[in-house]
Automatic annotation (TrEMBL):
Entry keywords, A to Z: Membrane, Transmembrane, Transmembrane helix
Name by which UniProt lists this protein: 2TM domain-containing protein
Chain ranges passing through the membrane: 21-41, 47-68
Span of domain 2TM: 10-88
Statement: the UniProt record of this protein carries the keyword Membrane: yes
Biological source species: Maribacter flavus
Pfam families, per database record: 2TM
InterPro entries assigned: 2TM_dom
Length: 92
């Protein structure tokens, strides 16, 4: 059985890896999207670079929410309230 300090260390290491992955994704976005915009400007008048910027941006927001534990719909507080509700009403 794994002791508490090993478990906490492993979880902290996983969290750091998630945050590092987010910043790598953000750096790639900041380098690639301006390049795509430049290509778009050089080749055509239709703003097609908006589509990858928007799609990748949505993915980046999701990645940030996951890396920094932000979930406005089903966060820790929601989970705690639901547990208390079920325990209080005994609806199981």
């Amino acid at each position: 059985m794994e002791n508490t300090s090993d478990y906490r260390y492993r979880r902290a290491k996983e969290k750091v890896a998630e945050i590092k992955g987010f910043y790598s994704n953000l750096l790639a976005y900041c380098l690639v999207i301006p390049f795509l915009i430049w290509i778009n400007y050089q080749t055509t008048s239709f703003p097609w670079a908006f589509f990858p910027a928007f799609g990748w941006g949505l993915g980046l927001l999701g990645h940030a929410a996951n890396a920094f534990d932000y979930n406005p719909f089903f966060g820790k507080d929601w989970e705690r309230r639901k547990l208390e509700e079920f325990m209080k009403n005994d609806k199981l």
